Amino acid sequence: MKSPFALTALVALAASMQVSAQPLPKGTALKPPADAGAQPDVPVDLMKAVTKRLSADDFEGRAPSTGVEPKVLDYIVAQFKAAGLQPGNKGEWLQPVPTVEMTAGNFTPMTVTGGLSFKPGADYVAGSYRVTPKSQVKDSELVFVGYGIVAPELGWNDYAGVDMKGKTAVILVNDPDYATEGEQGLFKGRRMTYYGRWTYKFEEAARQGATAALIVHDTFPAAYGWNVVNSSWTGAQYSVQKANDGMDQTVANGWVQKSVAEAILKAAGKDLAGLTKAAQTKGFRAVPLGLKASFGFDNTIRRSTSNNVVGVLPGKTRPDEVVLYSAHWDHLGHCAPQGTKPNDDICNGAVDNADGVAALTAIAKMNAEAGPAARSQVFVALTLEESGLLGSEYYGANPIYPLDHTVGGVNMDALLPAGRAKSYTQTGGDKSELGDLYLKALAARGLTDVPEDHPERGGYYRSDHFSLAKRGVPMFNVERSGDLVDGGTAAGEKAAQDYTDNRYHAPADEYSDNWDWTGITQDVELFYDLGRTLADGTMWPNWRQGDEFRAIRDKACAAATKGCNTK
To answer: What does pTM read for this prediction?
Structure first.
């Protein structure tokens, strides 16, 4: 995901180069899958053509809700048709996604009883999900709520016994056991769970009826510095339009510097370090601070509509059961020139994510050539990923195909043009029973699975598959490792670092006829296999016991009359 605080998938890939499977003997060739004869050839020329066209200058970087969007959509629809898909939204190709852009300004200082005053930007940042011209928090009681987590399956409730109406939650970043080296502990140790994501903490504060929520920034558990927080909350913020204009959300969400939190707690006669330690223990109870906070800002509001593109291959025996494939079509549009082309202000987004849409189209064509699967296969080119996963968020909240009838799926985002790899990794770790299919598919190819590097960064929660996962649908998010067949980790790291340093979110992310497509082809072979196995099978995968999304899936399946209730 390229959300406000996301480290990019490619940055994560570059980091993961440090993890490698055992090197293969020189000259060893990785074997094709056992069923390679039954798998259609990957249409590499089609992927080249789609990537080249989508990243052409006249598509102006594919910014959503701009004058170029209709031309981009027409092209994707034409490619979906040519691949053999049918319109996937009740006879239509498009799913409109209504959005709101809000830009906050005219911030007041944040004042806290006892004479404390903190500057916007330097000390705190804030925004609102409520679509209103003014956001004002006035004399709101501050309550320290630890990590702000309610996890019934773990017997954990940081809000137990406290009424948050009219109050402001002061929340620690990440999970209670983030400092653990391994993955032991209720919250999977160093591996971040959804409960550790800043988005979850704001959502839970709203569910608790809080007026505002303030996360305490700390560089190590956050995995980024204050400069990232500050820059990310400057300028336009985007959300999906809701009928109630977000009035069920908090008045304001924000972050405060750790030093600010320390000063506030000291004024309350408390110690941040001591309360942090207490909050890491099961049974912690929220602590009212006896202080009140006030701050506010104005909002400039703009409403617009973009579109997801949806195609389908109907299933032949169980068409009401769905396997989902997704990739986002949007990018940044015009951006600041960089490097040796001072007049080039188009962020073409060839890797991010024109080649993902090309892979999506290729897999659609391969499945059409293979003939109908037992289950229906739905292909969605999503919009507004770069604005916070909004296209997938809207689909998840307004699914064309019921989520309790959606078996699982595969998401494709920023496939690096480089060589074939010896191994793959599951972002998020072994979260669901999809992992069993993944390991079998790797073994059939002579590939290995390697651990995700930097699991504390929560990479699983930063791309479009997450919008489905948090609603209970198991989704594959697997990536090629940097241990390449030709050149090993040195070659892989060089390719990823070049993209990260010189091309990511920059005008230099352009298509080249000199790209190495062998690794992307390997990705597509694997993605096709994973999706087709689900589409031809009877499996209804669930999340592993103890996963944060297990209860959501269980509840949906228990209420369903068919779909996942038939497993």
So the answer is: 0.88
> Mean per-residue pLDDT for 335-348?
83
Q: What's the one-letter identity of residue 175?
A: D
> pLDDT, tens digit, for every residue of 260-270?
999 999 999 99
- The alpha carbon of residue 115 and the mean position of all alpha carbons in its chain are separated, in whole angstroms, by 40
3-class DSSP assignment, residue 308: strand
Is 250:129 a contact under the CB 8 Å cutoff? yes
Q: Which two tokens stand for residue 364?
A: 């659609």
Query: Is there a contact between 386 and 331 (Cβ–Cβ < 8 Å)?
Result: yes
Q: pLDDT tens for residues 82-114?
A: 999 999 999 999 999 999 999 999 999 999 999
| Residue 135, amino acid | S
Residues of the chain with CATH 3.50.30.30: 101-301
The phi-psi region of residue 563 (left if phi > 0; otherwise alpha if psi is between -120 and 50; otherwise beta) is left
DSSP for residue 173: S
Question: What is the CATH architecture assignment of 40-98+304-566?
Answer: 3-Layer(aba) Sandwich (3.40)
Fold exhibited by the domain 101-301: Glucose Oxidase; domain 1 (3.50.30)
Residues 6+ apart with CB under 8 A from 545: none
Dihedral sign for Cα atoms in the order 197, 168, 248, 96: negative
